[in-house]
# Entry
Amino acid sequence: MIREMKESDLAEVTEIEKQQFPESPWPESAFIYEMKGNPFAFLYCYEKDGKVAGYADLWITYDQAQIADIAVRPEYTGMGIGSELMDHCIREAVRNGCEVLTLEVRVSNVPALGLYEKYGFIRAAVRQGYYDNGEDAWLMVKPVGGLEYDNDTGD
Ligand SMILES: CC(C)(COP(=O)(O)OP(=O)(O)OC[C@H]1O[C@@H](n2cnc3c(N)ncnc32)[C@H](O)[C@@H]1OP(=O)(O)O)[C@@H](O)C(=O)NCCC(=O)NCCS
# Structure
């Protein structure tokens, strides 16, 4: 089940964050800022067996959406939960009239690249030295619709 993230989820979320991003986990304060201080952020949890099994942080800024964070509890990876979170983010982006969904990912992150390419994201550009350890990121982009541009002038 996917639902909005609550403050009471943060102990589990930050535990998963440390397991899945050991080099640069977001601290609890970052999630609290996203929840309470960032008007563009929408945080979702995937709940399974009464536990937080995964989560995503989606930013919706007018015609663009960005996945700022997405992770699945290690013991629940490979079961389709990342895909369900991605489906949800895409639906929310479309529902809000966004034209593109973007994200950054480490060039070495094979599972995440697999997930994004399964959903039709393209590798649009390299952000050199994007991460603290100097690793590059792929900027990945997926058109998600938005309003059709009407080019018919009636002439
Ligand atoms: C990336 C991540 C969210 C995927 O979640 P998941 O629940 O395992 O994903 P799914 O089970 O829905 O798999 C979706 C697709 O991802 C790809 N994938 C998943 N695990 C993979 C692996 N170990 N190797 C290669 N591709 C993989 C496959 O294309 C898969 O599609 P398929 O099952 O049809 O083959 C998860 O691995 C994770 O939390 N990683 C650590 C955090 C992270 O890197 N987040 C992204 C930061 S940009």
